[in-house]
Fold this protein.
Amino acid sequence: MTATTEINKIISKENMVYGKTSVLLDNEMHYCPGCTHGVIHKVIAEVIDEMGIQDKTIGISPVGCSVLAYNYLDIDWQQAAHGRAPALATATSRLMPEKYVFTYQGDGDLASIGCAEIIHACNRGENIVVFFVNNAIYGMTGGQMAPTTLEGQVTATTPYGRDCAVTGFPMKITEMIAMLPGTRFVTRQSAETPGAVRKLKKVVQKAFENTREKKGLSFIEIVSTCSSGWKLSPVKSNEWMKENMFPYYPLGTLKDE
Amino acid sequence: MAKFKGAIVVDTEKCKGCGLCVVACPTKVIELARDVNGKGYHYAHMANPEACIGCSSCGLVCPDTVITVYRVKAS
């Protein structure tokens, strides 16, 4: 038997172990090659599919690269003004308490312009899930400095590296959120290796289960890459993230009540 | 001899050639093709299909979900 016929025998529906979930639409994602957004979308879609909550989930998309998330996940969506996704999620979850409401925000949206919104939503302990995608840069607008940009990191607006004496220090949002009594589950994950993706999936599932049990706010930070903004290849971006971001933004669960 | 034999199917027209699957593959099955797809990306393909064990690592890390993984018990 030649190799090709053997492979053709393996490729049949009953042998499929991994494929695209039906919650993810067939639209081609507009993200750059290797963008972590794609992985996170996929993980959220898989969890929604496995929990069977597709018709009960409402996503709030932010302003940023992931503004077009409503093109990719086959659930109900709303689109918030810049940084105001937690406010919209508050209203949605209070008016429709039986729904699973989540916001999906980047670091420019959540940590910068929407900082007040997220802190107060977390302090009120709304029954929502927050996905915070932290790639230490403003990806969509061309790689400017974000509040989470690391010290010395070169961006379009800090061409000599971020000087903390001038621009302040990189914000550890997740640590801040974990201190608030309103939050129930606060964790920081990544999605660069198969193991990390599996871990992220477990965490996302736990967050949606918290919503089902009306436990309160679950906050998931995902340390991500921006290969276009960082001007590195996708593989090099992952290496850079491991080397530079993980020491400052250590992975792990900060709070689980 | 591996206990499982696997195979992957890549939606080559949707693949953006980021190469994350190439790094994630534990048995070095995947490589980026010399040819390009309609968008000009060097798509991923099975360069070494005999070594595939169907572990789904490539599928998990693929940002564009273009990889479908199949697996059978090795006879």
User: Anything to note?
Assistant: The domain at 29-256 of chain A is CATH 3.40.50.970 (Rossmann fold). Chain A touches chain B through 37 residues (CB under 8 Å). Chain A has one domain: 29-256.
